[in-house]
Amino acid sequence: MKSIYDCERAELARSLSPSYRSTQIFKSLYQRWLGNFEDMTDLPRAERAGLAAEWDLRLPEVHRRFDSTDGTRRYLIRLHDGELAETVFLPEEHRNTICISSQIGCALACSFCLTGLMGLTRHLSAGEIVTQVLLAQRENLAGELRDSFNIVLMGMGEPLHNYDNVMQAIRILHDPEGLNMSMSRITLSTAGMLPGIERLAQEDDIPNLAISLTGSTNAKRNELMPINRKYPIEDVLDAVKRFPLKHRQRVTFEYVLLKGVTDSVEDARTLVRLLAGMPAKVNLIPFNEAEELQYRRPSESSIARFQEVLQRGNVDAFVRKNRGNDISAACGQLKHKGAPAAK
Ligand code: SAH
Predict the structure, then answer these.
(1) Residue 340: pLDDT over 80
(2) Helix 126-140 and helix 163-174: axis angle, to 10°?
(3) What is the CA(158)–ligand 1 centre distance, in A?
(4) How far apart are CA 318 and CA 284, in angstroms?
(5) Does the pTM exceed 0.70?
(6) CA dist 51 to 26, 38, 46, 57, 223, Å?
(7) pLDDT above 90 (res 248)
(8) What pLDDT, in 10s, does the model give residues 311-339?
(9) 8 A C-beta contact, residue 250 and residue 261
(10) Is 331 a catalytic residue?
(11) What share of the chain has pLDDT > 90, as a percent?
(12) Which residue is catalytic, options 7, 106, 110, 331?
C-alpha cells in the first residue's frame, strides 16, 4: 500500500473523482489530524473502504525519545524497513523548531560531523520527511500552539543530495489545504551542493537557504568538508549571490568553530571579506564535542572574539546556543545513539 504522506495534493486529485476529495483528505490529515478514512465523515461512506484499501494513513512509530534537561527532545523514528530516522524538537518560548532529517546517514563525510562518519544508508522518501514533522508536532504542540513552529532541514543528511524527495516534502508541508507552512518558516541547510542550489533558485516556492561554510579558504574547507573539492567556495558564493531573495530576506551561513582550526582572528577576517556586501547573516556554532572526533570546542573568549571581528566588519553574527548536548541531539551529533546495536 502506498503511504498517503508521499503524495502531493495534485497527484491525489488525479486519482480521485471528484478531484476536490483530495482537498477534503488533505484537511483531514494535516489540519484535523485524522488517522483513518472512517473518521473522515465528509467523505461519502461508500467511498471510504475503497480509499482505505488503497492508501496507508499510518504514521511511523516513535521508537525512542530522549529528553534533554534543556527541554530539547530527540526522536528515533522507526521506518517501514526498520531504519531509524532522527528528528529533534527544540522548544523555545515564542518559536519552537522541528529539525528533520533528509537521509539515513550522509555521504558527504565532513570531518567534524558524527553523521558524516556513518556514510549514507539511504535517502528518505517525501513521506518519511513529512511524517517527521507530523510526529514532532503532535507529540509536542497541542491546542493553540499547534502551528507555532519552524522547520529546519538540519538533521541527518544533505538535503540537496536527495533533491526531489526533499522538494516534494516541502511542497506537501507548504500546501495551503494541508499544514500550510509558509516558506519563510522552512530553512534548508546545505554543505554547498552547487547544482542543487542552482536548481533551488529556479523553483516557484523557495525555503530559506542556509549554507554550511566552516572554513573560509579552499585549503581549509577541502580538509574539513570534502565536497569543497568538487564545488569550491567561490563558486558556491557566486550561486548564493545570484539566489533570488525576497525583500529583507537573507542567506544564513553556518560556521562551526573548531579550536585552533577555524576560530582564529585571521579566519574571522577572511570570512568578513568573503561575505562583504552580501545579504547574509552568520550563525556561529561552537563545535559539539564527541569521543569519536579529535576536534575541540574553543573557549568562550575566542568565540566572543570571533563574533566581534565579524560584527566590526559589518557581518551580522550570532552564536548558536548549544542545545540537547546531553542527549546527542545537537548539531553534528545525530548518529543513532541509543538505538539497539542490531536492528
Ligand atoms: N548537510 C547539511 C545539513 C546538516 S546541518 C549541512 O551541512 O548544512 C548540520 C549543521 O551542523 C551544519 O551546519 C554542520 O556544519 C553543523 N555541524 C556538524 N557537525 C557539527 C558539530 N560536531 N558541532 C557543531 N556543529 C556541527
Answers:
(1) no
(2) 40
(3) 10
(4) 6
(5) yes
(6) 13, 10, 10, 10, 52
(7) yes
(8) 999 999 999 988 888 888 888 788 877 77
(9) no
(10) yes
(11) 90
(12) 331
